[in-house]
Specification:
Leucine-rich repeat, LRR (right-handed beta-alpha superhelix), 12-stranded mixed β-sheet, 8 helices, 20 strands, binds 2-acetamido-2-deoxy-beta-D-glucopyranose
Length: 420
């Protein structure tokens, strides 16, 4: 997925308009229809004679099954204002709008439905169980529609599914665990829906390349397994995740390039292990309740371009090493309770197109637009010492007193991890 590395994708990740026009009534009706369909697995009787005719016309059993699935989907639509499925008639499913066929992986002389692309079709409805019959489907794009209800468990039957994008819909329920059984899935995008409950730990043990869960209502914490992830992009922004950022995150050092945890309810210290993420270009933990000081070890994030620590409860100083990171394009520490910053930080702003934001901190007269002394006093006089708190702290940090050893020890630790 080459496009994954474009920063524009990430910007888009956080910028769906959430103005989906599906009334509560429509949603309730549609959800009820999905329930009924799941209970009785009914097929409207007026389709039976058509099916017999189609059976004769479609010789290829793969396309016959796909025909069943696509018509079940069409029947499950409550509204199709752009007539997206208007031409979903007749036996030739490969000619249907949004359907793309390729020679089957199992028999090159048979066509198979490989892609269903309904992005921005603006249809309303639910996903029927029969969606699982699309066993040859590699790409399923349902982005920006008004699908509601749950994602049916039958999705686990999609043995070839590689890319699943159900973003910007009204899907509900817990994390769709059946997706964890889809063997080839690599790109998982369910952002901008109404999923709730915890993120299953198994998610990060699957070999996904990209995980977009932002703008849902996931609760509980970030599973410890996040360190096992092989993903290049993990976006958990705009959920209701609490607890600390697991120290294991540093173990994802080889692959993780962009992680965005903004706008959750994360607490505790920022783990020093996060500084192991040598390939991180985007590091965003803004909009949480992180405490303690900014780990000077973040100066090890050599590739970071966007570093956003704003809107937390950080105290202490902004380490000079962080402001001197070579790839930095945008650093924000605003809306914290920081009392000092290294001279390198102020020098960053406007230098070679880079931006630096430090407003709404506690640096008094030395910087513009700071918090008042009254606002600062309660937090600044009670700083959290991350070396003393547990959990969510850095006990045994720094590992030894001689600071010029740090970087050396650091790369040693990294190497041994790589060789494991
Ligand atoms: C929907 O599309 C079909 C096939 O293209 C067409 O026959 C039909 O008239 C269209 N319906 C509307 C309401 O535009
Ligand atoms: C491959 O598909 C062709 C055309 O449908 C069929 O005749 C042939 O029997 C299939 N081969 C196998 C091994 O299934
Ligand atoms: C975080 O939340 C604020 C306030 O609700 C919102 O303005 C901002 O756009 C959110 N940030 C992102 C990246 O979605
Ligand atoms: C830097 O980050 C801030 C806060 O996330 C954002 O508002 C701004 O657009 C970014 N600037 C650049 C140049 O990327
Ligand atoms: C710290 O380590 C460096 C490099 O190993 C060494 O040159 C220096 O003398 C040490 N300083 C102290 C105070 O031990």
């Amino acid at each position: 997925m080459d496009t994954l590395h474009l920063p524009t994708l990430l910007a888009a990740a956080l910028l769906f308009s959430s103005s989906l026009a599906l009334t509560f009534d429509e949603e309730a009706t549609t959800a009820r229809r999905q329930e009924l369909s799941f209970e009785h697995n009914h097929h409207p009787t007026d389709h039976v004679h058509i099916d017999i005719d189609i059976d004769i016309k479609i010789q290829n059993p793969r396309l016959l099954t796909a025909h069943k699935a696509l018509h079940a989907l069409k029947d499950a639509l409550y509204s199709d204002p752009n007539n997206f499925t208007g031409d979903w008639v007749g036996p030739d499913v490969c000619a249907y709008n949004g359907v793309f066929c390729v020679p089957s992986l199992h028999n090159a002389s048979e066509s198979a439905v490989a892609t269903l692309d309904m992005n921005a079709a603006d249809v309303a409805g639910y996903l029927p169980k029969e969606i699982g019959l699309l066993k040859d489907l590699a790409v399923l794009h349902l982005n920006s529609n008004r699908f509601c209800g749950v994602i049916p468990e039958e999705i686990r039957d999609m043995a070839e599914l590689y890319e699943f994008d159900a973003s910007n819909n009204r899907f509900v329920g817990p994390f769709p665990a059946a997706l964890l059984d889809v063997p080839k899935l690599s790109y998982l995008d369910i952002r901008f829906n109404d999923f709730d409950g915890p993120i299953p730990p198994e998610l990060f043990q699957r070999p996904y390349d990209a995980i977009f869960l932002n703008n849902n209502r996931f609760t509980s914490g970030i599973p410890e397994t996040i360190g096992k992830s092989k993903a290049t992009v993990i976006v958990l922004a705009n959920n209701e995740l609490g607890g600390c950022i697991p120290r294991s995150i540093g173990e994802a050092l080889e692959t993780l390039e962009q992680f965005v945890f903004t706008n959750n309810s994360l607490t505790g210290c920022l783990p020093v292990e996060a500084a192991h993420l040598m390939n991180a270009a985007v590091f965003d933990v803004s909009g949480n309740a992180l405490t303690g000081s900014i780990p000077p070890a973040l100066a090890g994030l050599y590739k970071v371009e966007q570093l956003d620590l704003s809107s937390n409860m950080f105290t202490g100083d902004v380490p000079g090493g962080v402001c001197q990171l070579p790839g930095l394009a945008n650093l924000s520490v605003s809306y914290n309770f920081l009392t000092r910053e290294a001279a390198e930080c102020g020098a960053l702003d406007g230098n070679m197109g880079r931006s630096f934001h430090d407003e709404a901190n506690c640096m008094g007269q030395s910087r513009p637009m700071q918090r008042t002394a009254d606002e600062c006093q309660p937090v600044v006089s009670n700083p959290v010492d991350c070396t003393k708190v547990e959990p969510c702290g850095w006990p045994n940090w720094p590992p030894e007193r001689n600071t010029s050893h740090h970087r050396h020890r650091f790369s040693q630790a990294t190497k041994s991890r790589e060789h494991e």
